[in-house]
TrEMBL record:
Residues 42-132 form the ParB-like N-terminal domain. Pfam families: HTH_ParB, ParB_C, ParB_N. Residues 14-34 are annotated as: Disordered. NCBIfam families: parB_part. Belongs to the ParB family. CDD domains: SPO0J_N (cd16393). Keywords: Chromosome partition, DNA-binding. This is Chromosome partitioning protein, ParB family. It comes from Daejeonella lutea. One of its GO terms (cellular component) is chromosome. PANTHER family: CHROMOSOME-PARTITIONING PROTEIN PARB-RELATED.
Amino acid sequence: MIHQKKTGLGKGLRALLDDSDLPENDRKQQISSESTSLGSISFVKINQVEVNPFQPRTDFDIEALQELSESIKLQGLIQPITVRKAGQNSYQLISGERRLRASKLAGLTEIPAYVRTANDQQMLEMALIENIQRENLNAIEVALSFQRMIDECNLKQEELGSRVSKNRSTVTNYLRLLKLPPAIQAAIRDKEISMGHARALISVENPDQQLYIFQEIINHGLSVRKVEELVRQIEKSGKPKSSPTKKDGISFQYMKIQDDLASKFATNVKLKLKDKGTGSIEITFMSDDDLNRILEMLDW
């Protein structure tokens, strides 16, 4: 009689590691015993893994997580997460929170992991670098990660550039994003404007002028080249070429209020003015949790 090997949830990496006819328990024991060597893989219980408190990434696409979860159900998790030992039966995540979340959605009870030894600063640096190297971080998340590495890992910009394989000017441009008004930072985070637009805006020192240009981008859908031309006009004349009153009637005074509200709620806020001093306030939220956060701030 021919016995088929059982396959199950999370079989992807196990299948890659399985080069023998050992029973399942023996293979687990073999893998576990080899985990003391650098770079080896262990299977750890998923409920023993604590989320990394130094995780710089704040935005996880629910739909993308669900897609990854479905893939894990079919193929198993191929790329291990990285953890450090936090106690006798507990681990702390260093990198791979997206994979961890998707694995939980897929119903895994254990997950492949590299187990490393790291102190808090090393853990933070590894988590930041691992996330910075991902292409799906938005520019503000990258900038915040850079700033944390400088502040919490005591790195200079040159050292930071070397760690993340970016030149100093690139690092500087990202860090300068954090000096833009909050409304513009929110628009960069939400991908309402591109990094090209942002680079043009950070070359302007006056916040009122930055807000004016930003509103022109939003109102007229300006290309990066058009924004660069507008910046040159402002630098040459010292003021915007056109009136500071926008197409939708928002003056710089109202833009300051809009910007302060965006800063308070940590999201994009728009004032919509009508005749005779009436209007409305539009507050953007990104998820149910984000809405609840804003409602709590409003004492709802």
